[in-house]
Amino acid sequence: MPTTTSQNDRPTLAILGAGGDLTERLLLPGLGSLLARDPGRDVTVVGSGRSGMDDDEWRGLVRSALREGGCGPDQADRIAATTRFVALDVTDADAFADFIDGLDGPVVLYFALPPAVTATACEGLRGRPLRDDVRFAVEKPFGTDLASARDLNALLLDLVPEDRVHRVDHFLGDANVLNILGMRFGNRVLEPVWTAEHVERIDVVADETLALEGRAVYYDSTGALVDMLQSHLLLVTALVTMEAPARLDATELHDLLATTLRSTHVWRDDPSACSRRARYTAGRAGGRDVVAYTDEEGVDPSRGTETLAEVVLEVRNQRWAGVPVRLRSGKALGEDSMRVTVTFRPPPHVPEAFAGGAPPSRLTMGIAPGRVALDLATNASGDSLALEDSHLDTELGDSDLLPYGEVLGRILDGDRLLTVRGDVAEECWRILTPVIEAWESGAVPMEEYEAGSDGPVEGNPGTT
Ligand code: NDP
């Protein structure tokens, strides 16, 4: 619903680390798409970072990033006219506290900072009085492992109650991710077969043709497992496997996500047999020549960072026990494909006359590109009694509201529906901790795949 903001309740979005990649490439364009959708909405944007940017440079950046997201020129000018940039080291606790006090409320403090800096900045606020109209928006990854995620949650809750903390995973704002809920709960035909009795396996895949693209500083200390599987793909998995909500509000959704994640474990508790790590060698992906990951500028090969991660999980509950759920994400692959594919079991009996049996039925929910595809056995080719695969495929319309716009709009309104609750964030780390430990111990060898290929396919992580 369009929003009209009066001068008094106009929120301030204070971006900490505003000179970084996230702000320019995702956050401000997201805000631009939100303003295009909801022109009556008003917000004061304040940027900050250590290296001072002058106000004109910052205004120019804000204007062009908002326009990039679809915001009209007048709106972009209006926001740019009231924005300012403050030189601030958030680890200087006095300066940080003064900065917060000086903001016009209500305030969203958006931590677009390296995770360790976010933790130090929050630590500096401990024990200080904090205004009660301030909310925290914290970027993923939430911590660097289970213990640090718990510490970060405890620290945040020492500062503000959980209902004023917004942990951001922008996948939850993606219209095609949310389509998983729409499809599952808006159609009668799916839920009855959405069980281990009918489903043979689930694949949650995020493959991309992009290689490192100059992001070595971030990526080489993160890797595919933490960058993609640890939060993004686990949340998608939870949306696919959770029980049906009676209503779509924050409490209900968060409870259901937490419940299914608590039941989720590495397949047979054997991370060595059920996970794979690999990195790309030189090749050609996405129409570009790609050098081997270990030759990319800024990469330290001794870190052993993977560019492809694959893990098989099991949701151990009545609905899903025994169904392998495979998560995989890789860089510099032959195809851009982010999707969930549900493969159904064969019919209990196929009449013998159908020579060769039936090809598997599959439902694919495409996240990027957005699509829905169904593979069904038919004898459509006219061959009297031979079954073959018929592929029905439809594109989903693009949403003009970018994922960060969807998420930011709700944060500015104090709506927590698309926020990652603290226990959900911790469960995501808990599920993958055995894999991280197995990889650190060397129990899972690093494989290689040629850039532009389908990735390693031989000897898929076992599910027996
Ligand atoms: P960058 O490294 O590009 O930017 C981080 C910013 O933080 C820099 O502008 C830096 O500016 C500032 N900064 C660092 N230390 C301090 C400090 N002590 N005080 C104030 N500012 C500081 O990171 P990104 O923008 O890429 O990422 C930010 C966060 O968003 C991370 O948590 C990341 O995981 C998350 N994220 C990023 C995505 C992306 O695609 N970029 C996607 C999803 C999440 P300066 O040195 O001038 O102070």
Assembly state of the chains shown: single chain
What is the residue-mean pLDDT, rounded to a whole number? Answer: 94
Bound molecules: NADPH dihydro-nicotinamide-adenine-dinucleotide phosphate
Strand content: 15-25%
Roughly what percent helix? 25-40%
Rounded to an integer in angstroms, the radius of gyration calculated over CA atoms is 23 Å
Largest sheet: 10 strands, mixed
Number of helices: 12
Low-confidence stretches: none
Gap between N and C termini: 50 Å
List the secondary-structure elements in sequence, H or E.
EHEHHEHEHEHEHEHHHEEEEEEEEEEHHE
Based on CA inertia axes, which overall geometry fits? globular
Number of strands: 18
Class from helix and strand fractions: alpha/beta
Question: Can you give keywords for this protein?
Answer:
single chain, binds NADPH dihydro-nicotinamide-adenine-dinucleotide phosphate, 464 residues
What would your notes on this structure say?
The chain has helices spanning 21-37, 55-68, 73-82, 93-101, 115-125, 146-159, 175-186, 216-219, 223-241, 250-262, 403-412, 422-440, and strands spanning 12-16, 44-49, 84-87, 107-111, 134-139, 165-168, 199-207, 264-266, 275-281, 283-285, 288-290, 308-315, 325-330, 337-344, 362-368, 370-378, 388-395, 446-450. It has 464 residues and is of the alpha/beta class. The strands form 3 sheets. Strands 7, 8, 9, 12, 13, 14, 15, 16, 17 and 18 form a 10-stranded mixed beta sheet that branches. A 6-stranded parallel beta sheet has the order 3-2-1-4-5-6. The chain has a two-stranded antiparallel ribbon with strand order 10-11. α2 packs antiparallel against α3 (73-82) and α10 runs parallel beside α12. It is globular and about 80 Å long. The chain starts with 11 loop residues before the first strand and ends in a 14-residue tail after the last strand. The model has no long low-confidence stretch (mean pLDDT 94). NADPH dihydro-nicotinamide-adenine-dinucleotide phosphate is lined by residues 17, 19-22, 26, 49-51, 88-91, 112-115, 117, 139-141, 218. This is Glucose-6-phosphate dehydrogenase.
